Amino acid sequence: MRGIHIANERKRDAEVGFESQPPRRTVSMVMPDGEAATTVKYVKTTADIDRLTADYGDLGGVAQALVDGDPEVDLELVGRPIKATHKIYLTPDGQPAYRVTMTQIVYNPDGTERERRDLSKAESNINAEAAINWSGRKFPKADAVRRFVFTRSYQLRHTSGLSYDFLYDMAKTLQDEDVLMFVGSGAKGQGPLILTTGGEPYRGFLEGRVAGDRYCLTLHLTNIELKSLPKSEA
Q1: In angstroms, rounded to a whole number, what is the distance separating the alpha carbons of residues 205 and 223?
Q2: Predicted local distance difference test score (pLDDT) of residue 61
Q3: Interatomic CA distance for residues 22 and 28, integer angstroms
Q4: CB neighbours of residue 90 within 10 Å
Q5: For residue 103, what are the β-bridge partners?
């Protein structure tokens, strides 16, 4: 379980745990004989259209080669089961790229490109010496879900009896007011949250729920704000 350094509305802070909670499957897939089904990955092909075109001249040549034989099938690799995989980047000629520069593309609300810039390599700040703070900006839940697209959610967990009381009080405060609290880095809690070094900056919103002596404190993350398109001139 990863750690996060967070403060409450009274600026009292603690380091607690957080983790994602994927939904539990309620349906199990089985074979006709009742045996549990398993997913197996195989190599489908090792060819791409650019390489085939380079080998056979043009698309017509590729089509004829496909009729005459199976040039896209590598009998040594196609059909081989895959276990562990790693993501790599390729050059235009299909070779592994050893030096990659990541570029961030920013779009306008209408989908047009606004600018390109180097992808940030900022350090993670969720477990830094300075805690994640409440900004004081509260959003009714009904308004927040219409204004932001929440792409990630993490559940905050206590690591001791003291941190249990700390998180429970936060969750109860948010439930009683039925709001999401905007949280972030910096003294005013309005800076971005970066979960991993070089990762995407997010805006964070805390949601709290309690039932008896149980609580659920969820950190929702978003980097997409829904905005209305500008009205077209008549």
Answers
A1: 11
A2: 87
A3: 16
A4: 10
A5: 118
